[in-house]
Amino acid sequence: AEGDETAKAGSLTDVNEIMADALPDPAPPAPTDPRLPLDARQVFKLKKSWKGIKRCMADTGVEMFIRMFRANEDIRTMFVRFRHLKTEDEIRVSELVEKHAISVMGTLDELISNIDNVDYVFDVLKATGQSHMKFPGFRTELIWDMEKPFLEAVKITLGDRYSDNMDTIYRITIKFILDSVIKSSTAPTNNSVS
């Protein structure tokens, strides 16, 4: 009886292989917009990975802000509502920081979830960049201070799922986002970023 089951299993495998060979190869993914520095496979992996961040947006965002404030104290003092928070523990439990972190992560979620719709992404980035210009003391180069804290926070949240390949994809993505925010924050209000 054991031999019969092995023969059946072997023949099913053979049939599956024959059927798979008869199917045409799937079409390659459509090319991405040339303004986007990610290929179709990277976009797919980014969106899939981002789901892990989406489930922990508040914690990831707060961690990003803690790391950003640790790296540049001047940034924390630019936030009028956060100036009084002196320790990382105060920052970590602050509802104000959490609310702002959720807002920033919500924008990042909107961008990453729609990353293959480059025109829409540029519209969101333009609005984001120009809204930051109204803050006293804001300088566009401060935007870059978010890069490393973002990557570190994402790495902490994803843990083992943050592979070398995902590191590369997230680095490309955040550079694209931050560079576009900087370009759009200084662009005339009636032109698109590209």
From TrEMBL:
Composition bias, Pro residues: 25-34
The segment annotated Disordered runs over 1-36
* GO molecular function terms attached to this record: heme binding; metal ion binding; oxygen binding; oxygen carrier activity
In terms of Pfam families, this protein maps to: Globin
Q: Which residues form the Globin domain?
A: 37-194
Q: Which domain of life is it from?
A: Eukaryota
Q: Which UniProt keywords apply?
A: Heme, Iron, Metal-binding, Oxygen transport, Transport
Family membership noted in the UniProt record: Belongs to the globin family.
Query: What's the protein name?
Result: Globin domain-containing protein
User: What organism is listed for this UniProt entry?
Assistant: Magallana gigas (Pacific oyster)
Taxonomy of origin reads: Eukaryota, Metazoa, Spiralia, Lophotrochozoa, Mollusca
